[in-house]
Structure formats: structure tokens, C-alpha cells
């Protein structure tokens, strides 16, 4: 979810209603037509970071920090949301993106401060797929050539045996 989709005042209202015992996360989520997990996320972050968590802010993380978070997630099996709470990352989906970059492109690309934009990652993925497909075509051609050669040699062997 976009950090700016809901106003700071709205988020504070939702959190305060939950903390004041107006209802459960599910009740409040249904009341406002938002996800229960989102309400829970706001409450948990508010309890750790206070009201400043809801201030609009563009976060920038170093490659080393991203790598640390990714390795933690992969080694412990922690969910992105749990890792976001532990490492104070506002958007758990960011961690998902980091994991995807790490698994698809490797550590070097994740640590690279100027890492691939979404558009360039897409181009690289298409290029990799083309290379992979070309390799498949080459292998199929090789198999067909070897099968034809095998069939030729079998016929030749049969002809030689029939001559005797």
C-alpha cells in the first residue's frame, strides 16, 4: 500500500480507536473498509515509533542494510511484515522487492546503490529469457541432428548386415 493513500489524521484515528478499545482490528478494519492487517501494521508501528511514523517521508536504505534484511528474512523464514517491524522499514513490500532482486540478480545488484530500475530489470529479464529460449532452440536442433545421425547409422548397419 502506498504510504500516502491515507492521511496521517485518518491513520491516527484508526490507531486511537483500536488502542481505546473501540473494537478489534477486524471490527475497525470493516468499519473503515480497510484491511485488518493494515490496521494491525499501523498499530504495531505506532507503538514502536509513535506518531512520527505517520509523517510522510521518503526512506532511502543502503545496499548493506538491504542485504542484512534480506539475509535475515531468508535465514529465519520471517515474514516481510515481521522483518519490517524489526528493522523499521515502513513498507513490508519493499523487503519483498529486495528479496526478489537478491534471488533474481544476486547480491551485487542488491548492494549496488544505483540498482536496476524496474524498467531495466524487466529488460534484463527479457534478455535472459531470450538467451534461455535460444539455448533451448539450439538444444532441440542438436537433438534432432543427433537423432537423424543415429537413424542413418542404424540403417547403414542394417544394410551392411544384409549384404553378408
TrEMBL record:
- Cite the Insertion element IS150 protein InsJ-like helix-turn-helix domain residue spans from the record: 10-51, 65-118
**Which branch of life, at top level?**
Bacteria
The GO terms this record gives for MF are: sequence-specific DNA binding
Q: Which family does it belong to?
A: Belongs to the IS150/IS1296 orfA family.
- For this entry, the protein name equals Transposase
Q: What species is this protein from?
A: Culicoidibacter larvae
Amino acid at each position: 500500500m502506498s504510504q500516502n493513500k491515507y492521511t496521517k489524521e485518518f491513520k491516527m484515528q484508526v490507531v486511537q480507536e483500536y488502542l481505546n478499545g473501540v473494537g478489534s482490528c477486524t471490527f475497525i478494519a470493516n468499519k473503515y473498509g480497510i484491511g485488518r492487517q493494515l490496521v494491525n501494521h499501523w498499530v504495531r508501528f505506532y507503538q514502536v515509533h509513535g506518531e512520527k511514523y505517520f509523517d510522510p517521508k521518503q526512506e532511502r536504505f543502503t545496499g548493506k542494510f538491504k542485504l542484512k534484511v534480506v539475509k535475515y528474512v531468508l535465514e529465519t523464514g520471517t515474514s516481510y511484515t515481521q522483518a519490517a517491524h524489526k528493522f523499521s522499514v515502513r513498507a513490508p513490500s519493499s523487503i519483498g522487492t529486495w528479496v526478489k532482486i537478491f534471488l533474481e540478480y544476486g547480491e551485487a545488484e542488491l548492494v549496488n546503490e544505483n540498482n536496476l530500475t524496474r524498467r531495466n530489470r524487466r529488460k534484463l529479464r527479457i534478455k535472459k529469457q531470450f538467451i534461455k529460449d535460444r539455448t533451448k532452440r539450439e538444444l532441440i536442433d542438436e537433438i534432432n541432428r543427433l537423432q537423424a545421425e543415429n537413424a542413418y547409422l542404424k540403417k547403414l548397419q542394417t544394410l551392411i548386415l544384409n549384404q553378408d
